[in-house]
Write a structure and sequence with these properties.
It is built from ten helices and twelve strands. The chain is an alpha/beta fold. The protein has two domains: about 30 residues, no CATH class; about 230 residues, Rossmann fold, CATH 3.40.50. It has a ten-stranded mixed sheet. It has a two-stranded parallel sheet with strand order 1-2. Its main location: cytoplasm.
Length: about 300
């Protein structure tokens, strides 16, 4: 939560120079408090596992968040009980007339398909378009980030010969941005994908800013100029064993997957995996919710035109 201080206090200027969020008396007087409305479009096969991972991170913030779950279609899920889907998930027709403070679109196991080959590609495009006028901020994870790069900006990903799998060291490109408040100069993030958007393509686009990147995994955090869209190409929500489960699944299916990099001690897959990204993942979601949603969203969600500036 922000520190509220008089705008003329010298500490206010000093803290802002250190990328610490302080709020003036004037702005605090204009704020109204209510729970945030957050919508999650869950595209992963195991819905319960993914929703638990995301809710674990969202629960780390002191903000009150009301969460709704969205499904992409009404076909039965192979990995999630029908009762669970019927009880907790809503269709797009049920929510498309609502406004939300934030929207999260998860990754999907579609890394080797062209976007136009995806059964629900038209639905994804419609939801992305809808999000630009019905959500204060949208967080796109992994496959969804690549899909949004393509749909919103015409940037097409490149498929790789080998899967990027492991936990990789990242660096901040920009320090004084709200999303990176509290971040170390270097931090670790899991990645698991077959595609890559070249870093120079993103840097060359006038509407996008790369905030963090990896020498091995490329761009990681990218934000649009209007701060409405946040693209996260990795998986800060992963638990300690998620990459292990994926590795064992690929082995069982007859594939010959590479051992996830920087994950097992001594690269021995029989050992206990290292988990060194949980603190970063929690901070990322907390910063997004606070600075890009809570501090920007209108009190009256029926009016999405009066968004507060991000400081």
């Amino acid at each position: 939560m922000p520190v509220k201080v008089p705008s003329r206090l010298p500490a206010s200027r000093i803290l802002r120079g250190e990328n610490i969020f302080v709020m003036s008396d004037e702005r605090a007087a204009q704020q109204h408090i209510r729970p945030l409305k957050l919508l999650i479009l869950n595209l992963m096969p195991n819905k319960i596992e993914t929703e638990t991972q995301l809710l674990r991170l969202l629960g780390n913030t002191p903000l009150q968040v009301d969460v709704e779950l969205l499904r992409i279609h009404n076909r039965p899920s192979k990995h999630t009980p029908c009762d669970h889907m019927d009880d907790f998930y809503r269709s797009f027709d049920e929510v498309k007339h609502n406004n939300y403070d934030g929207l999260i679109i998860t990754g999907a196991p579609l890394g080797e398909l062209e976007f136009e080959q995806v059964d629900y590609w038209q639905e994804i495009q419609s939801i992305i378009d809808w999000s630009q006028t019905h959500a204060t901020s949208v967080l796109f994870l992994c496959w969804a980030a690549h899909a949004a790069f393509y749909h919103l900006y015409g940037i097409k990903r490149q498929l790789r010969d080998t899967k990027i799998s492991g936990v990789f060291r990242h660096q901040r490109v920009h320090q004084h941005v709200p999303l990176l408040r509290g971040f170390d100069d270097e931090f670790w993030v899991p990645h698991s994908r077959f595609a890559q958007v070249p870093l120079d393509w993103l840097n060359a686009h006038p509407e996008l800013n790369v905030l963090a990147q990896s020498n091995d995994a490329g761009a990681y955090l990218v934000v649009s100029n209007n701060n409405r869209n946040l693209f996260v190409t990795g998986h800060p929500e992963y638990t300690r064993t998620t990459l292990l489960d994926e590795y064992r699944r690929d082995l069982a299916s007859g594939q010959e997957p590479l051992i996830p990099a920087n994950y097992f001690p001594g690269d021995d897959p029989t050992g206990q995996p290292f988990a060194r990204w949980h603190a970063h993942g929690a901070l990322l979601l907390t910063n997004w919710l606070n600075y890009y949603v809570y501090q920007q969203t209108p009190f009256d969600l029926s009016d999405m035109s009066g968004l507060m500036p991000i400081e």
